[in-house]
Amino acid sequence: MTFSITILGSSSALPTPSRFSTAQALNVLERFFLIDCGEGTQIQLNKYKIRTARINHIFISHLHGDHFLGIFGLISSMNLLGRKLPLCIHGPFKLKDLINAFISTMDRGINFEIIFEPLHYNGLELIYEDEKLTIESFPLRHRVPTCGFLFREKTRLRNLKGKVIKELNIPIKSLQSIKEGNDYTDVDGRLINNKQLTIDPPKPRAYAFVSDTAKNPTIVPYINNIDLLYHEATYADEGKKRAKETGHSTARQAGEIAKKAGVGKLILGHFSNRYKNLDLLQKEAQEEFKNTELALDGKVFDIEIIGVK
Amino acid sequence: MTFSITILGSSSALPTPSRFSTAQALNVLERFFLIDCGEGTQIQLNKYKIRTARINHIFISHLHGDHFLGIFGLISSMNLLGRKLPLCIHGPFKLKDLINAFISTMDRGINFEIIFEPLHYNGLELIYEDEKLTIESFPLRHRVPTCGFLFREKTRLRNLKGKVIKELNIPIKSLQSIKEGNDYTDVDGRLINNKQLTIDPPKPRAYAFVSDTAKNPTIVPYINNIDLLYHEATYADEGKKRAKETGHSTARQAGEIAKKAGVGKLILGHFSNRYKNLDLLQKEAQEEFKNTELALDGKVFDIEIIGVK
Questions:
Q1: For position A307, what pLDDT does the model report?
Q2: What pTM was computed for the model?
Q3: How many domains does chain A have?
Q4: B31 vs chain A: nearest CA distance in angstroms?
Q5: What is the ipTM of this complex?
């Protein structure tokens, strides 16, 4: 029941040996996703022992080099490592041309299919769904079209009260309906309320990745009450003017968004290389939203399952 | 009088955290060059404290991702760091299109000129020259058009024997001609042989970078007697068949080339990720050519000045 985010890069445009460009690897219920793919992402995946073969979907937030330049090397290495499964890339439509131009230089091409899904920018949009999970994109406010991504578990089936089910001799064929929340009518025509038969499932977990953006309160409804929010925090307060000019946020602004949205925890990244020490950024964000951590390279954030009631 | 090579990456196609993709930084007489630019090169330059602003020429041996994918991020970072000087890139002509396609995605473009010099493949070709140095390219045998590069100091002016010059009262205006190797005729019409007035200058130093190639003895005349040879050595003896299939060399074959060419020292790189320990590759090369070292990430090879006679 893993829901885990590994930070592969925490730098903004200029990477350093300890802070690579933006990338995050997600394991959500044993589905592996990559969000952004800055230069060196494949090296970080190798370092943190995440097998590239398990990644089937990559989400690229926008077409600035520090968010996508690692995708070419990753595609090349996936191919060398024998990949056969299709790889789905969700990103700005121009990225498709860049990828095709790169692949056209490969003397042997690649042995797997790339399915390219262009992003759109008209509000919350479903871009992935399976029986347990949805992923949605939502537009941000940056210098080029940019999306954030929201990963959300679906509500699970209700948990049966085993003892009660047994006492009432409810047949197996009726259990699925009860798990789905329906009441039960027994052989004598007696209605038994679902609440007597089940307990609430765990709260569905959710994570949002808020990539490069100026302060943008329009996203608050999308990320309301989620467990974990990554929000870019390129600058400290002293860089507020520069943040505005370049379409970025300060750590404090990230804290303000987290507070408005009532998230469980905030993690900060995309730090300008002007900050060697990031304590100030954490402190300024914490003045707005206490439960804030730094999303440094190699850190892993797990969202635990919490049963409700 | 520096002639120094810093290894930035020593891996073949699949980089690892300790062996990045191919790239080398050269300081030849305070001219800074970059040879190849695999993914993460800018991170390595940062790690080894080589300022990107000082690099004015980049040489890309061929269009396989592990030799050029770092160039986009490097161009982007040079721009962010305020570069104004032109940057000259020597590489396969298709690289120009890839670079232009990348730059076209940058919302603010770049603030410096890129001068693109396509490589040719017709033998030894002069691709750079200044008053102290030449750089030549020469074709290799790989799956795609590939060049090696030869960096060679020009012969310096002869060194004056100060004491003799003084005793003979030779006027300053005649010294340049004597340094250039000419004899001197004094005011009495007496001819003085140049050998009496000068000593030989130091031997011009030379370094060759032999990128991806199957064993290729046709390069031997180009690299004859050079001080330092980098030669790819993707495989050990056990991988000889694979080397042939993929257009690569074994370490032993690199040693054979070094021996034939009578170079001063051989350094090996471009190691397959199948070799965690490289001692075997060094040993096999040394069986052919004793003075062989591994060109591991972060190693610096200096070519010292040696006076002749």
A1: 58
A2: 0.93
A3: 2
A4: 24
A5: 0.92
